[in-house]
């Protein structure tokens, strides 16, 4: 090892010198300088030697070596070496892959890989239905909700709603439990609660906000929300069962929406990855189940 004063980094007493980079005034160890050509070059000009002499008292025993490296210089040298090796490969990759990249740019959104399609069917008596997994705290679900509601009413087709509360959301799971409590009063009331939550979602930030919202909704419908919504855990188990169903199907985002069919000449289910295409997909599903009479008003 070299010392800044006499060209030996490590002196006879076993003291290891800490040096300063002439480029960005960063401290680093002499051993790191010797192992990195970029730093080594920078610290061997005349200005660096002046700094070395000013740092004669910045010495630490060899047992306290920190291994700290001049990050800026090391990164600069690494980048220069990496670019020399990688740049030719990048050029070749762009040359061969550009056509595929252009095609992908205009391709439809990636559909969810379905692991278990057995549940993606309309209820008995229906040939087309909307099948959705949603999270009541999900902004994208809130944006899609009015469109799905309108489509269900306009086409007179069932709307099968399933809970998929995402773990990062602070109140969505409890909201799903609350919705199922309202379901026990009437299915229509439970659906109305879900729609109301989506409509007022920006104003619900915390669990207490949700509680206040649910109490007010109950009062508006001449009900009293109990202090403990689910004392036996039955409603919680139903939400968890829905979530497990979503995992079995292959859900990885919300909302995930399919138009599902029965006895179709076309695809048995089609995912709606762009809600602007919702009506077109339903029209196609109805055409593929031609013997039915369901139609848009």
Descriptive labels:
Glutaredoxin, 3-stranded antiparallel sheet, 4-stranded mixed sheet, 47% helix, alpha+beta, 7 strands, 2 domains
Residues in helix, %: 40-55%
Please state the average pLDDT score.
Answer: 76
The H-level CATH homologous superfamily of the largest domain, spelled out, is: Glutaredoxin
Largest sheet: 4 strands, mixed
Which stretches are poorly predicted, pLDDT < 50 over at least 5 residues? 1-18, 22-76, 94-109, 292-297
What is the general shape?
Answer: globular
Strand line-up in the sheet with most strands: 5-4-6-7
Overall CATH architecture of the largest domain: 3-Layer(aba) Sandwich
Please, how many domains?
2
Structural class: alpha+beta
Number of strands: 7
Treating each run of at least 4 consecutive H or I residues as one helix, how many helices?
10
Along the chain, the helix and strand elements come as EEHHHEHEHEHHHHEEH
Radius of gyration, CA atoms, in whole angstroms: 33 Å
Looking at CATH, which topology of the largest domain would you report? Glutaredoxin
The top-level CATH class of the largest domain is Alpha Beta
């Amino acid at each position: 090892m070299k010392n800044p004063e006499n060209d030996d980094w490590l002196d006879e007493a076993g003291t290891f010198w800490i040096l300063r980079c002439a480029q960005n005034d960063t401290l680093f160890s002499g051993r790191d300088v010797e192992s990195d050509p970029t730093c080594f070059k920078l610290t061997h000009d005349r200005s660096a030697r002046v700094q070395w002499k000013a740092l004669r008292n910045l010495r630490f025993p060899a047992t306290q070596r920190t291994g700290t490296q001049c990050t800026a210089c090391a990164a600069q040298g690494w980048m220069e070496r990496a670019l020399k090796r990688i740049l030719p490969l990048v050029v070749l990759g762009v040359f061969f892959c550009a056509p595929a990249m252009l095609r992908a740019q205009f391709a439809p959104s990636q559909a969810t890989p379905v692991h278990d399609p057995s549940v993606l069917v309309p209820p008995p008596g229906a040939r087309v239905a909307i099948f959705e997994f949603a999270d009541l705290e999900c902004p994208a679900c809130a944006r899609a909700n009015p469109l799905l509601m309108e489509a269900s009413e306009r086409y007179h087709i069932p709307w099968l709603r399933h809970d998929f509360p995402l773990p990062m959301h602070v109140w969505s799971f409890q909201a799903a439990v609350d919705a199922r409590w309202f379901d026990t009063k009437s299915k229509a009331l439970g659906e109305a609660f879900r729609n109301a939550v989506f409509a007022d979602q920006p104003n619900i930030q915390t669990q207490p906000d949700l509680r206040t919202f649910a109490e007010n909704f109950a009062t508006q419908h001449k009900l009293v929300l109990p202090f403990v919504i689910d004392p036996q855990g039955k409603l919680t188990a139903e939400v968890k069962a829905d979530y497990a169903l979503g995992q079995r199907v292959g859900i990885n985002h919300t909302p995930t929406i399919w138009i599902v069919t029965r006895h179709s000449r076309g695809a048995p289910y089609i995912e709606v990855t762009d809600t602007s295409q919702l009506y077109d997909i339903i029209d196609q599903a109805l055409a593929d189940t031609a013997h039915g009479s369901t139609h848009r008003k």
